[in-house]
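Deliverable D2.4 — example input (structure tokens):
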């Protein structure tokens, strides 16, 4: 076992028995490189990464390659999910130098952590114009020993270029109607009307963009926005990217038609998409959207919840195919013969319903299950029986590995999704699962000063500090819990986290946000990026949480910080709307319309109070704050000075704490909200 044996990251632990003498990221590794006068190999990946596993097997488990690395380099392994700051800084350098990026990320550094050579996956032998990994190692060693001054010059130039990339758009005002309309037009131009989604292959679920489209439609009635959201959701849910047996979404589709996925399942994707489909149902009443939202929520609870109550990061793409081979997608794909073995005479029906063919849609004649035809032409009970039998048979296969690491930010996203989905569909078990995860974050990830640890595993907090997205997404989850449960403690905890955002992540002069705290470990550059990737950027997630907190409490500093942070959306939204969807969604809240609904009742469990509360939750556009509690509750400032009318549960529709006339009637509340209730 090497130096990775004592860490908490499942990805690093996968490399703990490599012959490579790995070091975790830390000053000790760079001191060792300085002492030995050798360069550093930085290898960054994550547990569910297919090509990370491939390179590990081909190169890092190879004794000859390991011997060469151990003699001529200090090798550092990083889990990008545990250290997103390290990943972001060096990925920015890789993309700037090569025009592309991905994982595994392979970077060679000086002992001062300055990068001078980059790449991603390298094969064990030269292939398709790519050098072998051994050739790369030999070339880097030769440059280090024979052209040191050139290496130092390249490294210094890269660091200077990165230092000049600081963003300072935070002092502008939020986007207005003109910029939001321009963003919608830009999305329309990139939309794929035949297949749904945006752009070509590979296709990623555009969760944050769909949230913007739904919020824009709720505010303006723009049918084009709703159509893009609805059609994209329908195509994804009918495609192979969605698990037609067990629920939940894979990371992305390798084709434009959503047929063949990259099979890893990430918590963050499923949390975001669960919320998207719940919001789509709320806007349209779509039964398929309701089904997908609930199946995705149930998938998260069933397959990702840990013994401690949090949610694991991911399921791997690969698993044993029954012959001892570790194969991508083996757990999920089917051949006609496998259907016949499980279903007998129903195999033909299943093949037709799920699009399983002799030629296959994947590898070696296997097919990814999808729904190529309308469901209404099939007998529902018979299809339900087929699904149940196939799911049971699949359960006998070797399951993909699970990354049990609990990431604070992604659990915050899951908390928000489960709380809202449970409230919409009267599933208290989902709300309880959200509360359980929130309890874990407070108990294990937050210290006495409300500083967050980024990760935990098996009830043990990781050593690395939370980044901006952790504080923002966890606050978002806590705010959703406060709205759904009426328990003011979650609002209080959200406030603690957002106070850290204001004090440690915001540039006081410009209003711009950084991904790491002012007192965090210093890297070659302080990472900063307002654009979305697989999840909302920490920058725009913080803007949303700050705005939500201000709506609940009337806190002027938080609202002002949200406004300044959204200045970057005014600049980028019309130009690159696909990559700043969450910021556009948050910006919708600054336009005309109700921003808060306060529901007061004699008790939280009073049936009439619950009915009025649910009407408010279902009748408001996404992003609108709903507070529920007893009159004058100190924990929820929005409820202060909101009396009952004639002793009955009462609702107030407000904007910036200025409220319209109260109502006790759910129908009148619907009319006041101006949003059709499903």
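Example output (designed residues):
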């Amino acid at each position: 076992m090497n130096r990775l044996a004592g860490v908490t990251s499942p990805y690093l632990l996968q490399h703990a028995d490599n012959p490579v003498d790995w070091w975790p990221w830390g000053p000790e590794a760079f001191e060792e490189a300085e002492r030995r006068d050798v360069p550093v190999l930085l290898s960054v990946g994550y547990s569910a990464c297919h090509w990370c596993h491939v390179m590990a097997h081909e190169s890092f488990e190879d004794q000859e390659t390991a011997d060469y690395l151990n003699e001529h380099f200090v090798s550092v392994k990083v889990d990008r999910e545990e250290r997103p700051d390290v990943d972001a800084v060096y990925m920015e350098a890789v993309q700037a130098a090569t025009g592309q990026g991905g994982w595994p990320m392979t970077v060679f550094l000086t002992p001062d952590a300055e990068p001078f050579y980059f790449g991603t996956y390298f094969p064990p032998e030269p292939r398709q114009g790519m050098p072998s990994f051994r050739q790369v190692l030999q070339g880097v060693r030769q440059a280090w020993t024979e052209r040191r001054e050139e290496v130092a010059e390249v490294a210094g130039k890269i660091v200077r270029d990165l230092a000049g990339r600081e963003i300072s758009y935070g002092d502008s005002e939020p986007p207005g109607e003109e910029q939001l309309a321009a963003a919608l037009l830009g999305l329309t131009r990139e939309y794929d009307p035949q297949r749904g989604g945006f752009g070509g292959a590979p296709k990623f679920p555009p969760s944050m963009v769909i949230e913007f489209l739904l919020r824009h439609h709720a505010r303006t009635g723009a049918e084009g926005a709703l159509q893009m959201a609805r059609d994209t959701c329908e195509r994804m849910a009918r495609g192979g990217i969605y698990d037609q047996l067990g629920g939940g979404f894979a990371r992305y589709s390798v084709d434009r038609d959503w047929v063949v996925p990259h099979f890893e399942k990430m918590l963050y994707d499923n949390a975001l998409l669960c919320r998207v489909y719940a919001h789509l149902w709320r806007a349209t009443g779509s039964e398929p959207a309701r089904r997908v939202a609930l199946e995705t929520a149930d998938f998260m609870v069933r397959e990702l919840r840990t013994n401690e109550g949090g949610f694991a990061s991911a399921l791997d793409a690969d698993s044993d195919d029954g012959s001892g081979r570790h194969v991508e997608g083996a757990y999920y794909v089917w051949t006609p013969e496998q259907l016949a073995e499980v279903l007998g005479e129903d195999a033909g029906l299943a093949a037709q319903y799920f699009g399983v063919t002799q030629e296959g849609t994947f590898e070696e004649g296997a097919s990814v299950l999808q729904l190529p035809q309308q469901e209404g032409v099939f007998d529902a009970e018979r299809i339900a029986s087929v699904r149940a039998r196939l799911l049971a048979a699949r359960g006998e296969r070797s399951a993909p590995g699970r990354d049990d690491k609990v990431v604070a930010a992604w659990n915050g996203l899951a908390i928000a999704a489960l709380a809202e989905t449970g409230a919409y569909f009267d599933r208290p078990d989902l709300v309880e699962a959200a509360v359980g995860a929130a309890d874990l974050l407070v108990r294990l990830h937050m210290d006495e000063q409300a500083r967050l640890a980024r990760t935990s595993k098996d009830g043990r907090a990781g050593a690395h500090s939370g980044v901006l997205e952790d504080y923002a997404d966890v606050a978002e989850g806590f705010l959703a819990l406060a709205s759904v449960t009426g328990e003011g403690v979650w609002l209080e905890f959200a406030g603690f986290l957002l106070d850290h955002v204001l004090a440690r992540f915001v540039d006081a002069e410009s209003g711009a946000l950084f991904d790491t705290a002012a007192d965090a470990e210093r890297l070659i550059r302080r990472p900063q990026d307002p654009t979305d990737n697989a999840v909302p950027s920490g920058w725009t997630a913080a803007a949303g949480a700050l705005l939500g907190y201000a709506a609940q409490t009337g806190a002027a500093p938080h609202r002002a910080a949200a406004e300044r942070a959204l200045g970057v959306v005014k600049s980028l939204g019309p130009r690159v709307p696909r990559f700043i969807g969450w910021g556009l969604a948050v910006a919708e809240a600054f336009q005309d319309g109700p921003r808060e609904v306060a529901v007061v009742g004699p008790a939280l469990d009073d049936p009439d109070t619950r009915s009025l509360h649910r009407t408010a939750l279902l009748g408001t556009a996404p992003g609108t704050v709903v507070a529920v509690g007893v009159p004058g509750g100190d924990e929820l400032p929005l409820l202060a000075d909101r009396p009952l009318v004639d002793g009955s549960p009462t609702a107030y529709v407000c904007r910036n704490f200025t409220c319209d006339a109260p109502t006790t009637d759910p129908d009148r509340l619907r009319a006041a909200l101006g949003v059709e209730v499903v």
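The first strand starts at residue 22 and ends at 24.
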